[in-house]
Structure formats: C-alpha cells, structure tokens
Design goal:
The complex is a heterodimer of chains A (about 260) and B (about 350). Chain A is α/β, with parallel strands linked by helices and about 260 residues long. Chain A is built from 10 helices and 10 strands. Helix content of chain B is about 70%, strand content about 0%. Chain B has a two-stranded antiparallel ribbon. Classes of the chains: A alpha/beta (about 260), B mainly alpha (about 350).
Chain lengths: ~260, ~350
C-alpha cells in the first residue's frame, strides 16, 4: 500500500500572462487531514480544479495512489476515488435531499439503460440497496428528517452537509472540501469538525480541505500548506503556521516593509 | 410489490380502454384520439431531451420527417412506387424497400436514432445554445433534402396512398409504451443523471457522470420515439409531403411540453390532450356564431386567437407548467400526505 495518497509535483498553472500557481509541490499521506490555506486569490481552488481534472496544468504532475492522473477527465477522476465539494454550494436545485445523494451513487450502480427501461431484477436490487445506504449517510450527518425536502430549502449549514454526504456517496478515497465551514456559525462549525473526523474514521478517508477559519483548521488538520500568490510559503503543523512570520505577513501585510 | 400490481392493473385497464375505444367510437372521434396519441408519443420523447436532460433542442420535425418517409417507403408496395414517382424514377434502393408495419416502424426509429448519434458527436462536445442552432438547422436540412431528392422522396409532391395501418390500437398502445419507457428512464440512475446535468453540469461531472454519454443517451432515445411517431403519422395520414414537417411542428410540441411542465412526462401527456383536444373543440369559433342575437360572421383562425389567449392565461397561473417537473403520482402522494398531516 502506498503511504502517499496524493502527490502534487511541481505544478505551475498560467492563465494567459497570470501565474496562478508557481511550481507548487506537496504530498498528502493516507488517512491524513490536510489543510490548504492562504489569502483570497492565492490559488487554492485552482489546485482543486487541477486535481479534479477541470484544469490541465501548464507544468507538473498529479499522482494519485501511485498513478499519474494529470489531465484525466473530471468524471474519470471521480471513478478513481477523488470526490469534491464546491466553495459556493452546488446542489441539484430541482431535487430532494435524498435524490441529491442518489446522484452520488451514479457510478456505483451497475445496471444499464436497458435494465432500467425493462425494470430487470438488478434495477430493483440495486435501487433498494442505495436508498438504504443513502438514508444511512443522511442519518450519520443528522439530516435524515429532511430526506424528502427540496435540497435548496435547507439551512446553509445543512446544505453543506448534504454536499459532503453527496461527495461521500461516490465512494471516494480522497475527499476535497472547498471551504466546508464557510457561512457556518461556531456551533455548526464545531459539529462539522466532529462529523469530518468521524467520517474519516468510518470511511477510511483522506481529506484535503481549503479553509479560512484558522480555529477550525487548527482543530482538525494534521498538516497545512500555506499559499500566497500561487507559491508555497509554509508547510507543517497548523499551530506553527499561525506564528510563522511569512504567513502573518501574507494575511496581514508585511509591517517591516510597509 | 404493491406498486408493481397497481402499475400492471393500470396498464391492463389502459389497454382495455384503447381496445374498447377502437371498437365502439366513431371514426371522427377516433381520428382525434389517433392524433392525440401520435402527438403524445412525440411530446413525451421530446420532453426527455428538452425537459428532463435540459438540452434545448429544436429537432423533432427533422426526426419525425425521417421516420415518416422511411415508414412510408417501406409500406408502399414497389409496384405503386413506379407510378407514384412522377418527377424522376425512384432510386433502386427505394424500389427494393418493403416491410411489414412493425418492422418499418422499428427501422424508422433506428434510422432517426443513428442520425441523433451522428448529430450529438459534434454538438454535445460544446455547451450552451449550439444544440438549439444545430438541431434547428438539421430540421431544415431534412426538409430541403426531401424536396430536392425526388428519387428518394418524390420531391415536393410527397408520397401518397400510404397503407393505413395506424389505427388507435397501434397509436394508443405505442403511446402507452412510450409513456412507460420514459417514466422508467426518469426514475432510474440515468434519468436522475439527466436531471443532474440539467441542474448543474459541473456538479454532475463532479459526481462521476459522463455528461456527454448521458446527453447522447437522452437524445438517441428521444430520436427513436420521434422516428416511430413519424412513421405512425405517415400511416395515419396516408399522405406526406415536405411541408408538413416544418418548424411549426417542433413549435407545437414545444408549446405542449412547456405547458405540461418541462421534465414531467405525465404533464406532457395531459398537455397533449389539452392542446390537441382544444384545437378540435374550439373549431366552432371559426364559424358564424350568434351572440345576443347578433351574427359575428365566420372568422377562420379565430380559434387560434382564443387558443393563444387560453395558453397565456394558463402559463400566467402555472409558471412552471401544469405539473412542474414532477410526475402525477408524486403530486398525488404529496397531496395525500399533507391531508393526512392535517387530520
């Protein structure tokens, strides 16, 4: 078994003349919760989009579980075991909460188009199974009572939970969370860190997350990388990050040169 | 299990009703029912690509035309073709085509489906409104082909004396079959994926859905039934010409599925009955009427004016169409649940 689950190797991403990511490398170990932090526009979401195959990097490689997945189509990346959530929650608006989760199971259902049209036994068997599984997931997140409500009718915090549950439904090894605590109150944030730790254990997950809330990062992450203008300025324990001079300068401005 | 039995009983009851209507009703009523059944097939299948998968396409007139011509060419006996083709001699291929009604319908569907596959390869690689433009163009190309290739289509003269096999037994049961197939697709992982693509294509991709494949599946399924519907139409009307398959046909179907609620199959069915039915029922408006002792005089086209006003009123009160994007059983279940909650 490969100890390193995700390797980001010398990634450079240029949009026209703008260098969004400059020669970035970091490694996420199996069963680790890894944080990616940095001021707005530091290139955090860009890295997510490169890992998930939405962007093709100008230079560098993404190795997942020992396999080079650079430039793999986004839907294939999901099959390999990487699931993500979005910074601005993107639930399927016309669907109920449980239907949103069922979309996550799409590739784990094996019945084909004709089996669905003819309603063959495999259709009934698999549909029954995933409905039970989906309800189980919703219970784990404490939102089972909303299963049949329209997804967008839920509170912001609960919508986040639905999005994470939906990502889990794809059966990932690596979960990418883009600002999971954004817009949550302190109590919700606390509950979220509890849930993230729990699902990490229950589903044998590795988690890479982007976050601004340093208290949350401190409480949950094993290691962090701090980005500023596409460059890595710090890597290590979160407790050390908040006292690091370069990190403070990136967030608050460099007082010595001001 | 209980649901399966209810479903089976409903299907049997519908088939019995179709058989009963076929035996007892007069030919005028049956021709209206035939029309409704054929348009139901077209609206249901158009609703799959436009409503469920949310891909705004404008092609049904093209696929219906293809289906109608293919079926007509298979049904007309070769000896009749020689006499019928007045402009040029029929192509050898056309002369050799001959088949029974069911094989002709299936082949029509398959031809339309293959054309849909060819169209989807360039179109679904890009997003946005390209599909609408390309499919609109496709409809025009089919029509121009029909006019300018007389060796295959008898040109602007069209095809006549197509054997009339399409009675209400055929059209009604194929409409029922289409409804069942469409509902089975909607309530499966594929139907859910189509709706996901409609709601948010990026999020759908992030769930591992191959959006190109799912859109193509919706488009091909839709084309198959539009082709079959076209075949039924040809045999029902017994005469076809290129002008019948103009953009107006697509437009009519678009009205139906928007009225029914984009994405709702049962809504599309109800809307077909309302729209096609009211086209007939409002016919009295075209003729001379006596209102408070005054003669209005005959105004051909008056029913279309009234029809348009009715349509506007309906859309004002039901913005998302009659059923939104849900199906009748879902709506009934919710109503029932709410009643129980109140009690």
């Amino acid at each position: 078994m490969n100890e390193k689950l995700l390797e980001v190797l010398n990634i450079t991403m240029k949009f026209g003349g703008v260098t969004a990511i400059d020669d970035l490398s970091f490694t996420v170990d199996r069963n680790e919760i890894y944080g990616l932090i940095g001021p707005n526009g530091a290139g955090k979401t860009t890295i997510f989009n490169i890992i998930t195959g939405n962007y093709f990097p100008t230079e560098g490689k993404i190795i997942f579980d020992g396999e080079d997945i650079t430039g793999t189509r986004p839907d294939k990346v999901v099959d390999k075991g990487i699931a993500r959530t979005f910074q601005n929650i993107r639930l399927f608006k016309s669907m109920s909460v449980v239907e949103n989760l069922l979309i996550g199971y799409h590739d784990r259902l094996r019945y084909n188009y004709f089996e669905a049209i003819l309603r063959l036994p495999r259709y009934h068997r698999e549909e029954k199974r995933i409905r039970v599984e989906a309800m189980g997931l919703l219970e784990e997140f404490g939102i089972a009572q909303y299963a049949d409500s329209n997804a967008t009718a839920l509170s912001y915090g609960n919508q986040r939970k639905v999005e994470i549950a939906r990502a889990l439904a794809t059966g990932p090894k690596l979960l990418l969370l883009d600002e999971p605590a954004a817009g949550m109150n302190p109590i919700e944030t606390q509950e979220l860190s509890r849930i993230i730790r729990k699902i990490k254990e229950d589903y044998d997950l590795t988690i890479l997350l982007i976050e601004h809330d340093m208290k949350f990062v401190n409480a949950i992450c094993d290691r962090v990388t701090v980005l500023d203008y596409g460059e890595k300025i710090f890597e290590g324990a979160p407790a050390d990050a908040i006292v690091d001079e370069k990190v403070i300068a990136a967030y608050l401005g460099d007082f010595n040169h001001a | 299990m209980k649901n399966a039995i209810i479903k089976l009983l409903l299907i049997l009851a519908t088939l019995l009703a179709i058989a009963w209507a076929h035996r007892t009703l007069d030919s005028y009523t049956l021709s209206i029912l035939n029309n409704i059944a054929i348009f139901a097939i077209l609206a249901l299948s158009y609703n799959l690509i436009n409503g469920v998968a949310g891909q705004f396409s404008l092609e049904p007139n093209g696929f219906v035309a293809v289906g109608a011509y293919v079926t007509a060419l298979f049904l007309i006996p070769p000896s009749d073709k020689v006499d019928m083709f007045a402009l040029v001699d029929p192509a050898p291929m056309v002369l050799h085509m001959h088949a029974g009604f069911l094989p002709a319908l299936v082949i029509s569907g398959l031809v339309a489906m293959m054309l849909a596959l060819l169209l989807s390869i360039p179109v679904f690689r890009v997003r946005g409104d390209y599909l609408a433009i390309v499919t609109l163009g496709f409809g025009f190309i089919i029509r121009i082909f029909a006019i300018n290739q007389p060796a295959y289509t008898n040109g602007a003269l069209g095809l006549n004396d197509i054997p009339e096999y399409a009675d209400f037994l055929w059209t009604g049961s194929i409409a029922l079959l289409t409804l069942i197939v469409m509902l089975h697709i909607v309530f499966s992982r594929h139907g859910r994926a189509m709706k996901a693509v409609r709601d948010d294509e990026d999020a759908a991709t992030a769930m591992g859905i191959n959006t190109f494949r799912i859109k193509t599946a919706a488009f091909m399924t839709s084309a198959f039934f539009e082709g079959v519907g076209g075949g039924l139409l040809a045999s029902f009307l017994s005469t076809i010409s290129p002008d019948q398959f103009s953009f107006l046909l697509t437009f009519q179907l678009l009205i139906i599925i928007v009225l029914g609620g984009l994405g709702s199959m049962t809504g599309a069915l109800l809307a077909t009955i309302l729209v096609m039915g009211s086209m007939e029922w409002l016919r009295f408006l075209d003729s001379d009427m006596v209102i408070f002792g005054m003669h209005t005089g005959a105004h051909p086209g008056m029913r279309m004016v009234v029809f348009a006003v009715l349509l506007i009123i309906m859309m004002l009160f039901a913005r998302k169409g009659l059923f939104g994007d849900r199906e009748l059983p879902q709506i009934l279940r919710e109503k029932f649940r709410r009643k129980k909650g109140e009690a």
